[in-house]
Design goal:
The structure is a single chain. The chain is α/β, with parallel strands linked by helices. It is 35% helix and 18% strand. It is built from 12 helices and 13 strands. The strands form 3 sheets. It has an 8-stranded parallel sheet with strand order 2-3-4-5-6-7-8-9. Strands 1-10-13 form a 3-stranded antiparallel sheet, covered by helices on one side. Helix 3 packs parallel to helix 4 and helix 6 packs parallel to helix 9. It binds (4S)-2,6-dioxohexahydropyrimidine-4-carboxylic acid and zinc ion (ZN).
Length: 345
């Protein structure tokens, strides 16, 4: 039995760091686990200009622990009125690493998102031309589509056509939650990849709904049936270069989760590597954790792999019930559990 593994330092290709007090509270957790992270732009107001991106990056850097070499990679929030020239300028200057698509009203702070993909075709054509990654929250928002079907219907109605019309566009299908999405990505060209979160590997909708409703397991896209969880575990641990680590860590203060209309988002940053290591261990695939966590993402983003290593050891890690943050508290993923792996400092 493997009791200790050392891998190249990993990156998180999907995080929500927020701003101000909440950012200051959560940044150290991501910076402890990861060397770089793709930072999502769904702030209020959203990050839409290169100048806003540069300023946001500076605020994140100012919130880092003194000895940290963590590097935030900022993304541009796509709106119906985005200008291809400005997006190209942001990419070429390094202000933006990628563009994020939120279908309007799909999730937290997505009111300014795209109402119809036809409105942004000019931007997407430019991104295809300059090789800029396009990160997709892949859910339809139509009221008549069941929340558990919104990812599968997005593949049917939008994704299939998008990759056909823009065959060289570099696409990340973010936080995939279904067998349908895993199969779509696997069968698409090498320029189409996906991130997978810890929660979608650990839990199905029963964990959220049976025996009482657990608001801290509510995120979007919502966790699905068990067959989907199993398909995602297979994809993540398959060794395919198309799948890589993206936690979608999304902090919401406890009182905004434990209420009659709770926010979507799971705060999984503090024990992310422990959580993924458990999955890969259970699947007999610890030898593939490094590709998923540290190699496939940089290859897709055309960035160098990180120098240095981290070590995980088989040792119990107690996850606290709450973590103080911004005058309130956050409930981490796995709260109250003891995880079998530990990230060695
Ligand atoms: O659960 C989610 N929370 N899904 C998202 O897409 C956004 C995120 C957030 O920002 O809270
Ligand atoms: Zn997200």
């Amino acid at each position: 039995m493997t009791d200790r593994i050392t891998i190249r330092r990993p990156d998180d290709w999907h995080v929500h760091l927020r701003d101000e007090e909440m950012m200051a509270a959560v940044v150290p957790f991501t910076a402890r686990q990861f060397r770089r992270a793709i930072v999502m732009p769904n702030l209020k107001p959203p990050v839409t200009t290169p100048e806003q991106a540069v300023a946001y990056k500076a605020r994140i850097m100012a919130a880092l622990p003194a000895d940290s070499d963590f590097e935030p990679l900022i993304t541009c929030y796509l709106t119906d009125s985005a200008d291809p020239d400005e997006i190209e300028r942001g990419f070429k200057s390094g202000a933006f690493t990628a563009v994020k698509l939120y279908p309007a009203n799909a999730t937290t702070n997505s009111a300014h998102g795209v109402t119809d993909i036809a409105n942004v075709m000019g931007v997407l054509e430019r991104m295809q031309k300059i090789g800029m990654p396009f990160l997709i929250h892949g859910e339809v928002t139509d009221h008549d589509v069941d929340v558990f079907d919104r990812e599968a219907v997005f593949i049917e109605r939008t994704m299939t056509k998008l990759v056909r019309d823009l065959p060289d566009l570099r696409v990340v299908f973010e936080h995939i939650t279904t067998k349908d999405a895993a199969e779509f990505v696997e069968s698409a060209g090498p320029n189409v990849a996906a991130t997978i979160t810890p929660q979608h590997l650990h839990i199905s909708r029963n964990a959220m709904l049976v025996g009482g409703i657990r608001p801290h397991l509510y995120c979007l896209p919502i966790v699905k049936r068990e067959e989907h969880r199993l398909a995602l575990r297979k994809a993540a641990t398959s060794g395919s270069p198309k799948f890589f680590l993206g936690t979608d860590t999304a902090p919401h203060a406890i009182e905004t989760k434990e209420t009659s209309c709770g926010c979507a988002g799971i705060f999984n940053a503090p024990y992310a590597m422990e959580s993924y290591a458990q999955v890969f261990d259970e699947e007999g695939a610890l030898d593939r954790l490094e590709a998923f966590a540290s190699l496939n993402g940089p290859a897709f983003y055309r960035l160098p792999v990180n120098e240095g290593t981290i070590t995980l050891e088989r040792a119990p890690t107690a996850v606290p019930d709450t973590i103080p943050a911004a005058g309130s508290a956050l409930v981490p993923f796995h709260a109250g559990e003891t995880l079998p792996w530990r990230l060695v400092d």
